[in-house]
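Summary for the steering committee. One of the milestones for this cycle was to obtain a three-dimensional model of the protein with adenosine-5'-diphosphate bound, which we needed before selecting residues for the alanine scan. The sequence and ligand used are listed below.
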Amino acid sequence: MEKIAIYPGSFDPVTNGHLDIVERGLKIFDKIVVAIMCNPTKESLFNIDERLEMLKTSMHAFNTHVEFEAFNGLTVDYADERKAHAILRGLRAVSDFEYEFQMALMNRRLNREIQTLFLMTGLRWIFTSSSIIKEAARFGGDIEDMVPQIVNEKIKEKFAGIQSRQ
Ligand code: ADP
């Protein structure tokens, strides 16, 4: 039987830290579904289609082992629908731990069949987050080393567009 995990997140935008987790996850699972959580209360820089495009382009090399989709509703319900055995999450510093721990316990209450699996990020990506990248890029900071090439391009376009409208 194919071992499937879902990797839920905002991916606004995808970073090298996310790629690192998928690469590690593929050593355990046959397939990873990278799933964008549609959260209407969370403000985003990129819309769902833009985020999906950046994910697909940057993870092209993983081929059919990775799928991409956006979903609404409970993560455990989506995991069930995709016949996934696990929810994959990445851990950076200690600061991620408390929130992730609460979320994993809540998800286990909601569905005892689905396990949450945490993978430690590579040391290089310990301080990389989508929000830090957006902050730096907004003020012209160089983020090239931290994101896939397509993200570097799209984020520059995005902020150039926003500035020209101001
Ligand atoms: P969320 O909005 O749920 O925090 P993100 O898109 O920021 O979603 O991240 C999705 C998952 O990837 C989370 O488990 C997060 O901890 C993990 N992640 C984000 N950045 C990194 C990184 N640099 N290294 C490892 N894991 C990461």
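Key point for the committee: Residues 132 and 143 are 10 Å apart (CA to CA).
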